[in-house]
Amino acid sequence: MRQDSRLSRMLHVLIHMGRHDGPMTSDMIASMLDANPVVIRRTMAGLRDQGYVCSVKGHGGGWTLARPLGELTLLDIHRAVGEPSIFAVGPAYDMPGCAIEKAVNATLRDVFADAEQRLLERFAGVTLADIAAGFPSTPSTEKGTRCDG
User: Fold this and answer.
1) In angstroms, rounded to a whole number, what is the distance separating the alpha carbons of residues 88 and 1?
2) Number of H helices, E strands in the chain
């Protein structure tokens, strides 16, 4: 099963934006992530709608942070990218009449709901500045080119 990497990719982009001097175009971001600029614009529009980034059209335009990295949490960005599923595992519904399957599914739903709630609480306590503080500023983190690090 393919993992949903939207959260990780947007955290990556936003930290680059926090270290970049000036706007970053959708083409720059797409090149950095090896993605389609249309997908980048769509995703960034969701972040803009939440007030996390701003966009300027025309020559010299692009995307910039609307708030400092210290005011953006993992939870904020998780929600802005559509609250992708936290877990790739889940209940099975192969035998809906089976009492054992129902009991297993009920238990799994409770356990996963509890684990997800704890994880989201942890997300709320981590800012993008916390992540950015974990590595030094280098030339590769300052440019809008493909990131290899």
Assistant:
1) 7
2) 7, 2
Instruction: Tell me which residue of 70, 18, 77 sits closest to 48, measured CA to CA.
Output: 77
Please, are residues 104 and 91 in contact by the beta-carbon 8 Å criterion? yes
Q: Which residue in 125, 3, 11, 134 sits closest to 77, CA to CA? A: 11
Whole-angstrom Cα distance, residue 70 to residue 79?
A: 17
Residues with pLDDT less than 70, the chain? 1-2, 137-149
* CATH entry, 6-86+127-142, from 3.40.50.2000, 1.10.1740.10, 3.40.50.1110, 1.10.10.10: 1.10.10.10
> pLDDT tens digit string along 89-126?
778 888 888 999 999 999 999 999 999 999 999 999 99
Distance set, CA 140 to CA 73, 110, 118, 124 (Å): 24, 44, 34, 28
String of DSSP letters for 123-144: HHT-BHHHHHTTS---HHHHSS
| 19 Cβ contact list (under 8 Å, min separation 6) | 132, 137, 141, 142
Check: CB of residue 11 under 8 Å from CB of residue 74: yes
